[in-house]
Amino acid sequence: MSTDDDSTRNPRDSEAADITSTIISDFEANFETRKQPNWSWIAACVACATTLVRRDPKNPTWSVKQCDLYFAAMGKPGNIRGVCDIEEMKATGEYNLPGIPTYPLQLLHVFKNTFALSNSNPPLFFVKQTIGHGFPVIVGLKGFAKNGRVITLYGWNYSVNPPTWNIADPADEKCRVITEAELIALNAEELFFLNPPTSTPSIG
């Protein structure tokens, strides 16, 4: 993905000087906590897809279960009895593995691209633009491929000092507001960007 000069621009700059904050309110309504200790990556994908798919007037109640998405992403058959049953999932093995959001997002028809940070700070100006257009951004934190640790950014506020960001953390089981310095200190490794769904996902 090309960001041109976005990664070097001052994140306090804005294309519209009068826009100092934004929040994706429908994402917060669709936030989910993780159903297993290593499923933050799955929970984040479910929340983002639910937000985007339900914007279609034809799909106001669309939903997907975390365990169905997990099995689909891991290449496993669906649950034994067609239900999300953790005990039966345990019996199949490999029921609590971490992973990378790319493939689940592809299954959900909302994946756009990724941006690896290579030990640099996230390009916050570009992330701000993306959120401003109504798309949450999934952030893989340090070691996320091995621990499944991701958060979702869905709002920011530059009318306060220091600036703050709205994050959804399936591990903390809540949405919260942190400062920009705290966001940078989380050591993001990769960003996952989303598109409107290309078609209605069917999983499970």
Main attributes of the structure:
20% strand; 8 helices; seven-stranded antiparallel sheet; alpha+beta; 204 residues; disordered N terminus
User: Mean of residue pLDDT?
Assistant: 85
Tell me, what's the shape? globular
What portion of the residues fall into strands of 2 or more residues? Answer: 15-25%
**Could you state the order of secondary-structure elements as H and E?**
EHHHHHEHEHEEEHE
Low-confidence sequence ranges: 1-17
Write up what this structure looks like.
The protein has 204 residues and is an alpha+beta fold. It has 8 helices and 7 strands, in the order βαααααβαβαβββαβ. The chain has helices at 25-30, 40-53, 66-73, 86-92, 102-107, 124-132, 144-147, 180-185, and strands at residues 21-23, 111-116, 137-141, 150-157, 164-169, 174-179, 188-194. Strand 5 and strand 6 form a beta hairpin. It is globular and about 50 Å long. The two termini are 31 Å apart. The model is unreliable at 1-17 (pLDDT under 50).
Task: Give a brief outline of the structure.
This protein is an alpha+beta fold and 204 residues long. It has helices at residues 25-30, 40-53, 66-73, 86-92, 102-107, 124-132, 144-147, 180-185; strands at residues 21-23, 111-116, 137-141, 150-157, 164-169, 174-179, 188-194.
